[in-house]
Specification:
The strands form two sheets. Strands 3, 4, 5, 6, 7, 8 and 9 form a seven-stranded mixed sheet that branches. This protein is an alpha+beta fold and 278 residues long. Helices cover 37% and strands 21% of the residues. It starts with 5 loop residues before the first helix and ends with a helix.
């Protein structure tokens, strides 16, 4: 049997780690047919299937699991060879932060990580499917990634710090029925309050739309509306107060770190999690 080439193996590792042919193509900056052809070539050379296709993505066969265990250390070692041979080697760490997660709780752990691992070159990306580490709620973790939970939280109402309701202990939907809303269309939980209000015959909310939660807090502080946000956002903006909301179904989420199934990503996620919990 001929020696297996490193490029098809690299495409195979990416497909295994991301759980998707299309995402493997994105990670390697090649076309999807190129990845599919490379995996098919490996399957012919090895005499068996490496993946089974399902609606949820790729399912690795026993042969695929064995190939990953055997090939991953060598391919990773060779792929990083040019970086290690440079006078000051740096290793990219691609980080994604979902729009409904604030980066501030991760800032100190990231700073500690960079001081400790000076070989890392962190960079933020705008696509979860190509990152190494993602700061996300569990329901938003990219397909094929492992998830390390950090905390669980509920939701409340974000109001300007000087708002007449900012000092209230808890709020009811009726208290905020006339307030304009800052829409958070990227959040899976965003429609819960709207559904409750609609069921009570309240008028639909109106107001600005945001692209991430940091912008939400800025818009709330500017007096352009209120928003349903995670309770841990309290204290993250000096111009915003967050108050619990009663008489609505309880909504909760688990926030943590999603990471690609690579040795580096797993190690970094564990280090960041340990720092974040201290």
């Amino acid at each position: 049997m001929a020696m297996l080439e490193i490029t098809p193996l690299r495409y195979f590792l990416s497909a295994y780690e991301t759980g998707s042919i299309s995402r493997a193509a994105q990670v390697n900056a090649v076309s999807q047919p190129s990845v599919s052809a490379a995996i098919q070539r490996l399957e012919r050379e090895l005499g068996g299937s490496l993946f089974l296709r399902s609606r949820r993505g790729l399912v690795t066969t026993p042969l695929g699991e064995q190939l990953y265990r055997e090939a991953a250390p060598s391919v990773t070692h060779l792929a990083d060879l040019s970086t290690r041979l440079r006078p000051h080697p740096r290793q990219r760490l691609r980080i994604y932060c979902h729009p409904d997660v604030l980066l501030s709780p991760f800032s100190v752990p990231l700073q500690a990580l960079v001081r400790r691992r000076q070989e890392l070159l962190p960079e933020f990306c705008d696509q979860a499917e190509v990152c190494d580490i993602a700061c996300v709620a569990e329901s938003c973790a990219p397909s094929g990634y492992a998830f390390l939970p950090l905390w669980e939280e509920g939701y409340g109402v974000a109001l300007p710090a000087g708002h007449r309701l900012a000092q209230a202990g808890v709020l009811r939907p009726e208290d905020i029925a006339a307030e304009p809303r800052i829409h958070r269309p990227y959040c899976p939980k965003a429609d819960v309050l709207h559904e409750v209000e609609a069921g009570r015959g309240m008028p639909p909310p109106h107001g600005a739309a945001a692209v991430n939660d940091q912008q939400v807090l800025d818009l709330v502080a500017a007096g352009l509306g209120i928003a349903l946000v995670p309770l841990r956002h309290a204290g993250c903006h000096p111009g915003v107060a967050v108050r619990p909301l009663t008489e609505v179904p309880e909504v909760r989420r688990t926030v943590g770190l999603a990471y690609r199934k690579t040795v580096l990503a797993r190690e970094i996620a564990a280090e960041l999690a340990a720092e974040a919990k201290e």
